[in-house]
Every structure is written in C-alpha cells, then in structure tokens.
Design a protein that fits this description.
By secondary structure, the chain is mainly alpha-helical. The chain has helices spanning about 5-20, 25-40, 45-55, 60-70, 75-90, 95-105, 110-125, 125-140, 145-150, 165-170, 180-195, 200-210, 220-230, 235-240, 260-270, 280-295, 310-325, 345-350, 365-370, 385-405, 415-420, 420-430, 480-485, and strands spanning about 250-255, 275, 330-335, 355-360, 410-415. A five-stranded parallel sheet has the order 2-3-1-4-5, sandwiched between helices. The relative contact order is 0.09.
C-alpha cells in the first residue's frame, strides 16, 4: 500500500471514530467499511463495526466482526472483553467465560472482566470460583458497587464478610446515586438476613425498596384481572375446542415470583428428556400484539374474542418452531415465566394439551421474598408491601378462575410440601409430565444443562432445604402493611 492510501485509510478511520462518538452510527459504519475494503486486516475498523452491530442488536454479526479483528491480533484485552460480553448477551456462557479469561490473561487488572466472569460462573453453579473472580474485581476497584452486590449472592454467609464494611462506608458518603445506593441496601439486607440480624436486614430492604420509586397502579391491575375473568369464561373455551396445536410438549411453570418455580425447573431439567428455555416473553408479546394480530382496535383482553382458528394455529406453530429448534429430541419443553399465570387463557387456546405446573407458597413468605429482591426493570408491584399484598390477592383470584374454567389439567405443587417430601413430589411431577424416572434418579444440584439467571441462582442449585419455610416469622413486627393488604 502506497503512503497516500495509508493516509486515506487513517483519515477514514478517524472520521469513523468521530462520527461514532457523536452517535452517528450509519456514517461511522460507512467509514469503517471503507477502511476494511482497503485494509481487511485493520483490527480497529472490524472492532468498531462489531460495537455498532451490537448496539443495533445484531449480536451474531457483532461476533463475526470481533473474530475478524482477533484473526489479526490475539493480544487485545478489550477486544476479547467485547466478544465475551456479546456472547454473554447471546446466552453462550462457555464462550463468554473463555474470552473473559483471555481478556484477564492479557490485562490482569481488568475489574469489569472479573465482574462479568464472576456473574457467569455464579449462574453456572461455580459459586466459589465466582466469589474469587468478584473479589479480584474489587481488588482493582474497591468501590465497584455491582461487584459488591454480585458477591453477596454467591453464597449464604454465616458471618458478615469484610466487604460489608466497604458497603457501609460507600452508603455513608454522598457520591452514589439512587441506583447504586439501592443495590447496596439490598446487598446489606441479604447479608444481615443471612446472619440472623433481621431488624437491620429489614431496614436496609425498606430503604432499598423506597429508592426504587416503582410505579404500580393497583386499581388498574385489579380491573385487568376482572376483564380476563370476564372474557375467558367456560363458554369461551367451549366454543374454541378446535383451536391451537395438540403437541403435548409445551410445559409452563407458573406462580408468583419467588414461589419455587426455579427449583422445580431445575428438578425437571436434570431429566435427559427435558429442555428449558428459561423465562421467555413470547406470550407477553403475543398478548400485547393481539389487537394488531386480530385486526381490531378492541384492547386486550377483549380482542381475544376476535382471534380465529387459523391465526391461533399459526401462533402455536411459530412458538413450537422456535422451541423445537433448540431441543428437537426433548419430550418436555419448559417455559418458566412465573407471571404466565396471567396468560393461561392464551396458552389453552394455542396448546390444548399443554402441561401447566403451578407453584404455591405461603403468601407472606412469597411476598416478603419478592420484597427482598431487586428485580431491576420488572415486577413494579414488588417494591411495596401494600402492592405485593394486592397483587398476590389478584393472582389467587385469577388462579381460582382458571381452575374452574380452563380446559387443561393444572398440576399444583405446594412449596412447603416439596421441601418436606422432595422425592414424593418429584415422582408426582414426573408422572404428570409423563416422564420415566431415570435409573439413577434426579439430582438438580448437579445439573449443568443451563445457567440460572433468575433471582434464585444460588438457592436453586443447593440441596432442597427448609429454612425458607415460615421465614416471614422473623419479620412479623415489620409486615403489618402486607398482612393488611392480603385477602383474608
């Protein structure tokens, strides 16, 4: 390449970088592509194209660009990190872990890489290795709130770790905004709950929830449940008996969040004929799009009255096509989205032979467990004891309705019975799912079929334990607003 061309390439690259900084992604991408046309080995242009592709949600394309850049330079820690982060977003934990480790090998003082590695190791069940990685992140960045928070959820503590002092010190300062302070309050709440200091724990949880400033309209939610009950009547289903697809494999685990749904999922996926996709938002998306799908302006759920047989069959096939592509040999395809209890009417229309597994747990234990967890951008009802009580009451009301009218058998599991007699409850569960019991039994603690990314990621890999039963009694003096809001 002659010097003039080299200058042109460098100018194009710098133009692309400037456009990128300004947020003009189309112009930046155009410049980077021109660079690669003239200089295919230019790692910076390929790297930046990968970043743009990731920002645009094109994750596989982003990985292709990152690999193209790595083909010409193996010793770029940030490049390995960005590839790892993208693999993590794709749910490809093993590949992400590999590249985070590559980034750390090149740049040992890389706290964000240690943090993300710790998160993935924890989700994969390697809790001790996760804690080690997170403490390495804190070694290089002692004020990293997300690493302090993530560390707390790698184990159940028997005494306060030394990191709790740093959390208190950060809270005492004035440098942190509400999101970071919220994380620290939840982390300290969990630590004090672990060691039996319940009054201190509740105070931290109370402050953390107050910082959320969640928006939940209880009256609107109650009206919505009333509409569901009105639309999805026994007569509604009787007139639609030939809707959907009769494939028996779709299996939905529903209930309140923090009711034991992840534990049951892990028990099932330790069976070789079962596959879980975790928590999917497919049904929520379909329900939200139903006015458009039916071509009527009638809002949901009234618009379900206009859903025709052919459209229901098409929606069912689309769901099955996605699920069977992931696990074509599975006899049981799990969708473990607790709030799908709202969409059991839609499920019955699409999959008249679906299996519904419903987790029930003491209302006070369930609601308190929700209150003790930061769900980030979900479950706005969970940041107030009053809202939790109202939501739980409406959940019970709707489940009673489904039990009365739904043309599907619902398999109920009481969490308290499951942890008291796990073998018997597991046998009942396998019989309901028409799964043979494996010769060596089931061991959900050894299951590595999938990472656990829900709030139960540590507990669900432990042997079934009883200490969470009647946990609310430790907090009896603080939960009067919840008890007042729960139905009698």
């Amino acid at each position: 390449m002659n010097p003039a061309t080299m200058v042109d390439v460098e100018q194009l690259l710098q133009q692309g970088i400037q456009q990128h900084k300004r947020g003009a992604l189309e112009q930046a991408e155009h410049c980077y592509r021109q660079v690669l046309e003239q200089q295919p080995e230019n790692t910076a242009a390929a790297h930046y194209l990968g970043l743009i592709a990731r920002d645009n949600g094109k994750l596989e394309t982003a990985c292709q660009f990152f690999h193209q850049a790595l083909a010409h330079t193996e010793n770029d820690a940030v490049l390995h990190y960005n590839l790892a982060l993208t693999r993590q977003q794709l749910g490809q934990a093993a590949a992400a872990i590999h590249h985070y480790r590559q980034a750390i090998a090149i740049k040992p003082d890389f706290p964000q890489a240690y943090n993300n590695l710790g998160v993935l190791l924890n989700e994969s069940g390697e809790h001790a290795a996760a804690a080690k990685a997170l403490r390495q992140a804190l070694k290089y960045d002692p004020c990293r709130v997300e690493s302090l928070y993530n560390l707390v959820y790698t184990q159940r503590f028997s005494s306060l770790p030394e990191e709790s002092t740093q959390m208190q010190r950060l809270l005492a300062g004035q440098d942190l905004g509400p999101p970071a302070r919220l994380k620290l309050h939840f982390a300290l709440g969990k630590l004090h709950d672990d060691v039996g200091q319940y009054a201190t724990a509740f105070e931290h949880y109370h402050q953390g929830n107050a910082l959320k400033q969640a928006q939940f309209d209880g009256a609107r939610f109650t009206a919505f449940i009333s509409e569901l009950i009105s639309v999805f009547s026994a007569d509604f289903f009787a007139r639609r008996q030939d809707f959907g697809d009769t494939d028996p494999r779709p299996t939905f685990i529903v209930g309140m969040p923090r009711s034991g749904t992840t534990l049951v999922e892990q028990i099932l996926v330790s069976h070789p004929l079962v596959h879980s996709a975790g928590e999917l938002d497919y049904l929520q998306q379909i329900a939200a799009a139903m006015p458009r799908i039916t071509g009527h302006n009638t809002p949901s759920p009234r618009c379900f009255q206009q859903l025709d047989r052919d459209t229901a069959h098409t929606l069912a096939l689309d769901y099955l096509r996605q699920r069977t592509a992931q696990a074509p040999a599975a006899h049981c395809l799990i969708d473990k989205t607790p709030l799908n209890f709202i969409h059991l009417g839609l499920i019955a229309l699409l999959f008249p032979r679906a299996r519904i597994i419903h987790l029930r747990r003491d209302a006070r234990d369930t609601c308190l467990s929700c209150y003790f967890h930061d769900f980030s951008h979900r479950h706005e009802f969970s940041y107030s004891l009053e809202h939790l009580g109202l939501f739980h009451g409406q959940y019970q009301r709707l489940m009673q309705h489904w039990q009365a009218v739904l043309p599907l058998e619902i398999h109920h599991i009481d969490y308290e019975v499951l942890v008291e007699t796990p073998a018997e409850e597991t046998a009942r569960l396998l019989a309901y799912c028409q799964l043979p019991e494996p010769a060596n039994g089931l061991d959900h603690t050894a299951n590595q079929h999938a990472s656990i990314t829900t709030a139960s990621l540590y507990q669900a890999r432990q042997p079934v334990y009883r200490h969470a039963v009647h946990r609310w009694r430790h907090y009896r003096e603080f939960i009067q607003p919840l008890e007042n809001a729960l139905p009698e």
